[in-house]
């Protein structure tokens, strides 16, 4: 008799758990933006590289010095771009794909696949070791879809994906950790800057279409910022004192122009979807040209790092960073500070067409 009683209790508990899960799925599906799916590099990462064999890690102090979770793997002193965007859209920042606990109800608000040192091209960033390349991140998304299929019926899943937003932040390492290191990569010998920009755009276009074909209808794709102004590039010392390296900024210009054209073409070809080009170069350029407008007073060196402009070597473990982090545009050799990231996130969500074309994230959420 006791065995039957125990079995009935177990079945009731399982049924209750199932109902709770179904309720959660129903609630998520009723949200305007039920989930965020995040692809790209360290500008969007929240800890995938903690689980990979790579030198590109940020899970040690002083990273996270201003984040309530400490050093989580975010390449920032505080919150990441996606943390801020999630807050502004009312969607929890999704967990890293590689974390073994990223299953079940934890994936109902999306998943973050971004990986430091990764690029559009598979070889970009190999000098750091393992990473989830963009192609690998798309494969990882497919495995998440298999989980969703076990949790939702096809109609509910289709609606869930159509209302969700994919954020794609990539291309930086195809320059920093590929084209701009001729000693390790052949790309600068094989392509001039314009050809290389086109190669990247064409490859990214195929990756965007792969995500679209899997059910993602809203894609927010960021351009590349003025890489010639980051502390690491300034530290090379090839530009005049106090100046950005214009030749590098011109290189990424070819990519950005091509990316915006690609977004226009995708919107013409896929009327059931919306693709957005985020003008990272314009926003970060505005911050660098008008720092006082945003309460910044340090634009040319990192808060944390070693060497010229604190940009020759990025943050070392247990290094004491600068105290004026809120007034400093760059956190380390490659990444903006939390304060600069906030400006970009706010303009991504609320900005005019000069910042986000053809719509911003808030408008995208309403479509």
From TrEMBL:
Compartments where located: Secreted
Pfam families xrefs: Lipase_GDSL (PF00657)
Lineage: Eukaryota, Viridiplantae, Streptophyta, Embryophyta, Tracheophyta
Highest taxon of source: Eukaryota
Gene Ontology CC entries for this record: extracellular region
Similarity remark: Belongs to the 'GDSL' lipolytic enzyme family.
GO molecular function terms listed in the Swiss-Prot or TrEMBL record: hydrolase activity, acting on ester bonds
InterPro entries: GDSL, GDSL_esterase/lipase, SGNH_hydro_sf, SGNH_plant_lipase-like
The entry's keywords: Hydrolase, Lipid degradation, Lipid metabolism, Secreted, Signal
Signal sequence region: 1-30
Keyword flag Lipid metabolism: yes
BP-aspect Gene Ontology terms: lipid catabolic process
Residue stretches in coiled coil: none
Official protein name in the record: GDSL esterase/lipase
